[in-house]
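This part of the workshop introduces the protein records we will be handling. A record pairs a protein's sequence with a compact description of its fold. Comparing a sequence with its tokens is the quickest way to learn the format. The record below serves as our worked example for the rest of this section:
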Amino acid sequence: MPKTALVINPWVTDFKLYDEWMHPVGLYFLISLLKFNKWEVHYLNCLERSTHLKSKRYNTADFPSKEMPKPNLYKNIPRRYKQYGNSEELFSIKLKGTPKPDIIFIGTGMTYWIEGLVNTVNKTTDIFPDIPIIIGGTSATLIPEIIKRKLPDVEIYSGPLSESFIELINKKKVCGELSLNNWEPTLIDAFQIIDKHFHGPVFTSFGCPYRCAYCASPYLNNAFQIRLHNTVIRETSYLIGQSGITDFAFYDDALLYQPEKNFLPLAERINCLDGNIRLHAPNGLHIRWIDEAILDAMKKCGFVTLRFGYESGDIRHRKETSAKTSRKMLAEKISIIKSAGFNPSDIGIYIMGGFPDQKVDDFLEELSFVSSLRVEVKPVFLSPVPHTPLFDYYAEYYPQLTQEPLFHNDLFFITQLPGWSYQTIEEVKSIARELNKKI
């Protein structure tokens, strides 16, 4: 008799959350592994979008939410603190309607979403009090000890699906055997059990060759690996054919790296797919790899959203940004992007606040420069991520970072730095909006 697993994508607690093509891809791969091993799998998504909330541009949308008590740490942030996703009542109904599982898997995202994770676990154990729960994913890998302290009755799995994960599951007598032998990770298995698709993920590679000081990608994936293009095309074709999906977002950390091996041949195959699709790159492309061949391929296969990780052109922060680009290179690359036929509103440049010794005036000067190139400026603020150089740097000044995940919240942490405040952040965002109106 096949074993039964319940896989859950938990609630998010934060000041903000928007469905800009969000997918828990790690859980999708877990579902693939379980189904490959002939397990019966049920999936509950606490971040399920409500059909009552109208889709916005390119099938993005708000999540349903409810206001939650604001943690004391955030008392000086004049924003409502919310739990995003479906209601607790609906989640309980869905749990009660799920066959009793042999084991429950719950994913994790940002470290400072931990209260949403705790609420999910507590609600789940109300219905299934005696079922073992394993928590994995990003936060489980970055802060396993803290999660274990807050949720002592669960088991934490740190790292990607691997032989160590197989050993962990196979040691549990209540569970069936799992094996990685001949398994090819595919997202289709998850697509088949998701009730409603609004958009789709395209995931062509694991890891990133760069070592930016604010990013934990090297810790989460210790090697850069390109997926089989046949698999990627099958996944995309499935959502086009079965669900009529038109909007797809790339989830790669380094989509344009080694373009002759990955992006260029894949783009040719995407261009041959049936369906009038739109492609989006919200993760922050590396602009130094942009050239006419790549832009031509992007235009032909349907890209409409280009986001680039600039962060800072200040020479003082070249180490933190892996010297992604300079102001001169940025200007040159944006010129050829526009010449390729992309509109200024298609092009967004991420600018980061929160680097060591960075002043508000420095940040505003970056906004002004990038806006002068007639593209959209996208201000973002540093979230100190465990196991990164910038986390270690700031932990010397703010030791709370090592014990309290809520301290990692980008909206909160930036207000702790000299010269920054919530009012300053709002002023920066207002300036960015005004600059973007001029492009």
The mean pLDDT is 93. The first helix runs from residue 25 to 36. The chain has two domains: 1-197, 199-439. DSSP finds 16 helices and 18 strands in the chain.
